[in-house]
Design brief:
The complex is a heterodimer. Chain A is 50% helix and 19% strand. Chain A has helices at residues 2-62, 65-68, 76-90, 126-133, 178-184, 215-225, 261-308, 323-361, 366-382, 386-403, 411-428, 454-464, 497-504, 515-528, and strands at residues 98-103, 108-111, 139-142, 154-164, 167-177, 193-198, 204-207, 237-243, 250-256, 408-410, 433-438, 447-449, 471-480, 483-490, 533-538, 544-551. Chain B is built from twelve helices and ten strands. In chain B, strands 1, 2, 3, 4, 5, 6, 7, 8, 9 and 10 form a ten-stranded mixed β-sheet that branches. In chain B, helix 2 links the parallel strand 1 (50-55) and strand 2. Classes of the chains: A alpha+beta, B alpha/beta.
């Protein structure tokens, strides 16, 4: 999910920004190209016009006999006249060029400048050679002076031989200085739009920006030789190269890139930075969102883990007001319930322990009792008093049973204990009552809690049959399905109604006198659950009827309290 | 049911990833395109029209010549300028690769040293050539004859006290006052030293010691700087080539030339075609151009050099007959390494 967030935050941003930058680049370079093309046109027109002027001037001079006839004149007067003719031809063009007249030997005879750039020019070399080879038109050749650098350098020479008939009279040589070019291209170039002129072999003739002297053409030339792309930016300028019509020269138009490669690089860097920021923001938001959604789930999960290890004391604070609060509430209720149940369980165990202890308190050190009773029994036997031996052995039996650790005994054993009890009571009470017991064979091995029937029988004797002469206590055992019933019926006076209500309510009221009932009930409910227990009622005719209901469990194994 | 849901989720993830990848690639290609949309093949210089030249000549000499050559032949020339020793070293280091077509410049003994890297070529004008030193196997072609001369600063040296020749130059009067370029850098400077040794017949150690005393160090960083120092007055006398001295005088510098009475070496410099040249035909044309009549006349008239041609006399401003010394160029070239080594050690 985190990855998803990140992608959504970063990728669209990068895509859109990059597309923007690219389209900007394209539009921008399109505009630059447009501008360059316009400037190119301007330059072309300017140059074409200039050439027309050059040509016209040269032709005028050629056709001016006042000049060409007096090339070799030495007379000052004649020379003065020639000069004025020359000046009149060239007056308006002073800004464009200087005009020199050389004789047929290459010696300069006249010059519109104070001094010509060269007093003599070789005939078989350079400009004059070229002019001689192309007599029909003006030849151009770049010029450079090496050792002595003039302030306003001569950069270009143009020459045409003056031929009359078949005779070479001399040469008209045009001198172009740096300032002439500046003037020519004035208005077109500026520090952002640089104009350079290259020779046919791409050597620099002129450049409008001094700072870039030599470096641009050198770079372009190198690229050409290395087969590299030529019209790529140099020094923050984009070069446009085009040939000057009617000449062998090329013009390089250098447009300063308003947005250089560095600018674009910076743009991309900014995009990158923003992508990072966006990424961080999205991470933060993801974190916050996950906290809001995930941490409650985590909280819940860890709380549940706690309960797994048995700790039910925990609960989750409900500070929120959404669906999670519902979950929290339910969870808290669950743990509360479980806690209560646990406490209840502990309490039950405590109670049982108490009952056990109470029972054990009732028991005395058994061995001394056994031995004494044994002695009494044998004494009775020896002295032929059967009641004594009967009572002693019955008592011993009862004692043995109540002392034994078995919490559960067979129904057969329980009823034999009751029988032993009854034997004693019969002797004590002078056979005033009878005892009947019926136990089907299949229920003999049924497991019952120890001393569960005896107290009830005792109760019948103590409370029910005190006044009777022909008392009868009958114990009947039967089962219905998985439930074992043990009925104790007496024909006594019947139990008190008030007491009856208290007993049956199964409440915690421990009636002092009927503590036996209470104990039995408790034992049964602890052993088997609340649905089993005692039921006390009045008999149909007279007397009391107590029914013990417990589950029918046949077997000899010990069962533990469930 | 759970499995199916998982599969669908995985599929979406895959598709998502693919889409992202494609988007990124798309952007990158769009990004790349505008740059290459410019017409790049408008300017193509074919190999047949090229010539690569290494030169140790000064710009005022090579540039006009190269430009004239271009005009005449239509061949585009790319020039690399540096000192002779430097250039020859580069050639040697890359002897199996192509570095240039023509070595234009360098005095005879340095060219002799490097003959192993050159291609023999007998130029068309060979029969018109006349030099003291030449290559029997046509490994290089002489370009101009260059006598060594003594120059003096006009302001500080009067003709009366000026040295008349080499022996005078080595006198104690001129200790620390002699300008001479470091021979490790300047070829012409080494030639001067070799010539002095042949004249004086002393061993390398003594020679180097003596010269260093006169120069006051290990020598100027170039022959141009050496002559500048004399022109400006920092040093009073110097040794340089006649042609350079004359050009300086033409330019108005305050120096004078003295032609040593003992005689002087006239060592030609030359042009050679490289063995590994790529544009051999063009190189040959260039060599022919350097000894063509027009070119040699330019040398004489404009650059005050002495032509290597027998049909061109020297510039009228130069003395026609000067005392020429017999210079054993082979010996000079054999001994070069040792002298330079000694010079280097003593420079520290």
């Amino acid at each position: 999910m985190v990855v998803g967030f990140i992608i959504v935050a970063v990728i669209p941003l990068i895509i859109i920004c990059t597309l923007l930058v690219q389209s900007f680049k394209i539009i921008f370079s399109g505009e630059q190209k447009q501008k360059a093309s316009e400037t190119q046109n301007e330059i072309n027109i300017t140059v074409v016009d200039a050439f027309e002027i050059f040509n016209k001037t040269v032709i005028d001079i050629e056709n001016n006999p006042d000049i060409i006839d007096f090339i070799n004149a030495t007379d000052n007067q004649e020379r003065k006249k020639t000069y004025s003719a020359l000046y009149s031809e060239t007056d308006e063009k002073k800004e464009l060029m200087e005009v020199n007249i050389y004789d047929s030997q290459g010696i300069c005879k006249y010059s519109t400048d104070t001094l010509p750039v060269e007093d003599t020019l070789p005939l078989n070399w350079g400009i004059l050679k070229k002019a001689t080879e192309n007599p029909e038109e003006i030849s151009f050749l770049e010029y450079k002076k090496y050792l002595k650098n003039d302030k306003d350098e001569t950069l270009l020479l143009g020459a045409k031989p003056i031929i009359k008939g078949n005779e070479l009279l001399g040469f008209i040589v045009l001198e172009f200085h740096d300032s002439n070019f500046d003037k020519l291209f004035q208005g077109i170039y500026n520090s952002r739009n640089v104009i350079a002129i290259m020779s046919e072999y791409w050597e620099e003739i002129y450049i409008s920006e001094i700072k870039l002297k030599e470096s641009i053409t050198e770079e372009l030339r190198t690229r050409l030789f290395n087969h590299q792309e030529v019209e790529v930016s140099i020094n923050g300028y984009k070069p446009y190269i085009f040939e000057l019509p009617g000449t062998s020269f090329s013009i390089v138009l250098l447009q300063s890139e308003i947005l250089s490669k560095n600018n674009f690089k910076s743009m991309y860097q900014i995009i990158f930075i923003f992508a990072i920021i966006s990424l961080l923001l999205s991470l933060l938001v993801t974190k916050a969102l996950s906290n809001y959604l995930i941490s409650p789930v985590k909280q819940l999960s860890s709380a549940m883990n706690e309960t797994k290890s048995g700790n039910f004391d925990i609960g989750i604070e409900e500070v929120r007001e959404d669906e999670f609060s519902i979950l929290y509430r339910d969870f808290n209720e669950m743990t509360h319930t479980i806690r209560k149940y646990n406490q209840q369980s502990i309490q039950n165990e405590k109670d049982l322990n108490e009952a056990n202890i109470a029972m054990m308190h009732a028991q005395l050190n058994p061995h001394f009792l056994y031995n004494t009773l044994d002695t009494i029994k044998w004494s009775g036997v020896i002295n032929h008093i059967p009641e004594i031996s009967t009572m002693a052995s019955s008592l011993a039996k009862i004692l043995r049973m109540s002392i034994s650790v078995d919490k559960f005994i067979s129904l057969e054993d329980e009823l034999s204990l009751v029988k032993s009890y009854m034997e004693i009571q019969k002797i004590r009470f002078d056979n005033h009552f009878k005892y009947e017991c019926s136990l089907p064979d299949e229920l003999k091995e049924a497991l019952v809690p120890k001393l569960i029937v005896q107290p009830i029988v005792e109760n019948s004797i103590l409370h029910g049959l005190m006044e009777s002469e022909e008392g009868l206590i009958s114990v009947t055992c039967y089962h219905e399905g998985e439930v074992l019933f043990i009925e104790v019926i007496d024909n006594g006076c019947g139990i008190d109604k008030f007491v009856l209500e208290n007993l049956n309510s199964k409440g915690d009221n421990k009636l002092k006198d009927h503590i036996g009932f209470y104990n039995i009930n408790k034992i049964i409910s602890l052993s088997y659950g609340d649905e089993y227990g005692l039921n006390v009622g009045l008999n149909k005719e007279s007397g009391t009827r107590v029914v013990i209901r417990i589950p029918l469990i046949i077997g000899k194994e010990n069962i533990t309290l469930s | 049911m759970v499995k199916r849901g998982e599969m669908i989720r995985m599929k979406f993830r895959k598709i998502g990833k693919l889409v992202c990848l494609n988007a990124i690639l798309l952007i990158m290609t769009i990004g790349c395109r505008p740059n290459t949309r410019m017409d790049e093949s408008d300017y193509v210089l074919s190999e047949e029209n090229q010539l690569i030249v290494y030169t140790s000549h000064k710009k005022e000499i090579y540039e006009p010549l190269i430009k004239a050559f271009e005009e005449q032949t239509g061949i585009w020339v790319q020039v690399y300028y540096s000192g002779t020793t430097d250039l020859l070293k580069t050639i040697e280091e890359n002897k199996d690769a192509f570095v240039c077509d023509v070595m234009f410049g360098g005095s005879a003994e340095s060219l002799i040293d490097s003959e192993a890297y050159f291609l023999p070529y007998k130029c068309h004008e060979y029969d018109h050539l006349n030099t003291q030193v030449f290559s029997e196997n046509y490994m290089w072609t002489p370009f101009s004859n260059l006598p060594l001369v003594i120059i003096t600063n006009n302001k500080t040296v009067y003709s009366a006290t000026a040295p008349r020749g080499w022996e005078d130059l080595l006198g104690s009067v001129w200790e620390d006052k002699v300008a001479l370029a470091n021979p490790q850098i300047s070829g012409s400077s080494y030639t001067a030293i070799a010539m002095l040794q042949q004249l004086l017949r002393i061993d390398d150690e003594l020679l180097v010691d003596t010269l260093m005393v006169q120069i006051g160090g290990e020598g100027e960083s170039s022959s141009g700087v050496a002559i500048d120092n004399v022109a400006s007055g920092r040093k009073q006398i110097g040794i340089t080539l006649e042609t350079t001295a004359r050009q300086y005088i033409e330019a108005g510098e305050n120096i004078s030339i003295i032609y040593p009475i003992e005689g002087t070496a006239v060592i030609p410099d030359g042009t050679a075609i490289l063995k590994n040249a790529k544009h051999i035909e063009n190189a040959k044309k260039f060599v022919d151009f350097t000894v063509a009549k027009d070119t040699q006349e330019m040398l004489v008239n404009r650059f005050y050099r002495r032509s290597v041609r027998d049909d061109i006399s020297c510039n009228e401003n130069l003395p026609q007959n000067i005392v020429i010394m017999n210079f054993d160029v082979n010996w000079a070239s054999e001994n070069k390494e040792h002298i330079l080594e000694t010079w280097k050690n003593k420079s520290k």
